Amino acid sequence: MYFIDRALSSFYARLGGRLPRAACGVSGHLGTGDSGLTWQAMAGLGYTYRWGEILGVWRYLDYDLESGSAFESVTFSGPAFGVTFRF
Predict the structure, then answer these.
(1) Which are the contacts of 75, defined by CB distance < 8 A and separation ≥ 6?
(2) What is the CA radius of gyration of the chain?
(3) Which of 19, 39, 47, 79 has its CA 20 to 30 A from that of 65?
(4) Which strands, in side-by-side order, build the sheet including 2-4?
(5) Which domain range does residue 18 map to?
(6) Residue 4 — pLDDT band, cuts 50, 70, 90?
(7) How far apart are CA 37 and CA 85, in angstroms?
(8) pLDDT tens track for 48-61
């Protein structure tokens, strides 16, 4: 799946797969706008149990801002984990 906005300032793509109890996915986003360039990528794995689901991903996010601003480049990266409980 992919998406391009009408102003052609953003592009988003996602690819994933699912087995009966497991899932994996990769997504990415590339854009402009108020910043020079913004992009992010995320990859993760999930597993389904009777009581709920667990998910682990790694995300990388990078902003290139206009020169002369307080920060010209900001980068974040790291893991994220989630748990869903079913009642």
Answers:
(1) 60, 61, 62, 63
(2) 17
(3) 79
(4) 2-4, 10-18, 22-31, 37-48, 52-64, 73-85
(5) 2-85
(6) low
(7) 38
(8) 999 999 999 999 99
Closest CA to 42 of 62, 26, 63: 26
**Alpha carbon distance 86, 69 (integer Å):** 46
Question: What is the spatial distance between Cα 60 and Cα 77, in angstroms, rounded to a whole number?
Answer: 4
**Spatial distance between the Cα atoms of 31 and 19, rounded to a whole number of angstroms:** 32
* Tokens matching residue 18: 């699912």
Beta partners for residue 83, in sequence order: 54
Q: How many domains does the chain contain in total?
A: 1
pLDDT of residue 22: 93
Residue 20 three-state SS: coil
Alpha carbon distance 8, 25 (integer Å): 25
Is the separation of the CB atoms in 2 and 11 below 8 Å?
yes
